[in-house]
């Protein structure tokens, strides 16, 4: 390795993305999925761990929230040294953690914030205390450039029945717009009877539909974590919101399509983050 430094005219800035989320010991969701997705889509990942879960493809057996003081020290450590362009927020287990993360985001003001309001795991396990949902809505969601709820999460946020078809999913749009949020990506993956998996990107002035052919596989663990991280990665690379979401949707669709190439666990296995080798996914 040469000891000569690269001339400044040849140096390029690195697109740094921070993920603030819980750790998944099974490697399919949470921080582990986030780092894989950010890396696979061509950005540099750093992390702040908010909770440690004992988890595998069959479910979550324990959750240990990281003490607030240490969450704060992690946040200060990365923000005071790294040029973080985009932040993705995932699992925040309680109200105090949500308040701390919101306060630190206000302090450091990254260019982009994507919030995946993680409440329920693919296995059905509850990952967010019910009492913390109101704190999430009042403290964190208003700061986000984009929130990415799936249908159960959107139902919880709007206190609505769970949509069962395209019509009831569309009916949820107005209720989501009434939340104090800038933009919403409402994900339709839970409508398993539909031929396509259709998401609604709900912007202030319009709705964009993003549709992909539904892939029938049980290996969908970590899809929400992966998608939101990919979108944050593409935002960090200079794409506008609409384009970043399109690229993220394309990436997660291919990662699901190639999920059965992996043999991981006996339950809901992970998506294939590195289906395209080590090349950037575009």
Automatic annotation (TrEMBL):
It is an enzyme of class 2 (transferase). Its EC number is 2.7.1.49. Pfam families: Phos_pyr_kin. InterPro entries: HMP/HMP-P_kinase_dom, PM/HMP-P_kinase-1, Ribokinase-like. Keywords: ATP-binding, Kinase, Nucleotide-binding, Transferase. Signal peptide: none annotated. Residues 24-272 form the Pyridoxamine kinase/Phosphomethylpyrimidine kinase domain. Pathway: Cofactor biosynthesis; thiamine diphosphate biosynthesis. Coiled coil: none annotated. One of its GO terms (biological process) is thiamine diphosphate biosynthetic process. GO terms for cellular component: cytosol. GO terms for molecular function: ATP binding; hydroxymethylpyrimidine kinase activity; phosphomethylpyrimidine kinase activity. This is hydroxymethylpyrimidine kinase.
């Amino acid at each position: 390795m040469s000891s000569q430094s690269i001339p400044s005219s040849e140096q390029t800035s690195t697109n740094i993305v921070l993920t603030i989320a819980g750790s998944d010991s099974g490697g399919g969701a949470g921080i582990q999925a986030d780092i894989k997705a950010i890396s696979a889509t061509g950005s540099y990942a750093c992390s702040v761990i908010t909770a440690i879960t004992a988890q595998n493809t069959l479910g979550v057996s324990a959750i240990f929230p990281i003490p607030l003081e240490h969450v704060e020290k992690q946040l200060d450590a990365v923000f005071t040294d790294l040029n973080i362009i985009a932040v993705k927020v995932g699992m925040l287990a309680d109200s105090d953690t949500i308040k701390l993360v919101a306060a630190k985001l206000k302090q450091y003001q990254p260019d982009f914030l994507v919030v995946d309001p993680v409440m329920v795991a693919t296995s059905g396990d509850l990952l967010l205390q019910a009492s913390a949902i109101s704190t999430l809505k009042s403290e964190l969601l208003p700061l986000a450039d984009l929130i990415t709820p799936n249908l159960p999460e959107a139902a919880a946020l709007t206190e609505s029945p769970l949509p069962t078809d395209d019509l009831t999913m569309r009916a949820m749009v107005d209720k989501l717009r009434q939340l104090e949020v800038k933009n919403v990506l409402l994900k339709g993956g839970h409508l398993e009877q539909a031929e396509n998996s259709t998401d609604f990107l709900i912007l202030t002035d319009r709705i964009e539909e993003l549709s992909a052919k539904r892939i029938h596989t049980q290996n969908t663990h970590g899809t929400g974590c992966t998608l939101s991280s990919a979108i944050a990665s593409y935002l960090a690379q200079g794409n506008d919101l609409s384009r970043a979401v399109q690229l993220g949707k394309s990436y997660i669709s291919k990662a699901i399509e190639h999920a059965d190439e992996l043999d991981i666990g006996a339950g809901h296995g992970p998506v294939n983050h590195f289906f395209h080798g080590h090349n950037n996914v575009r």
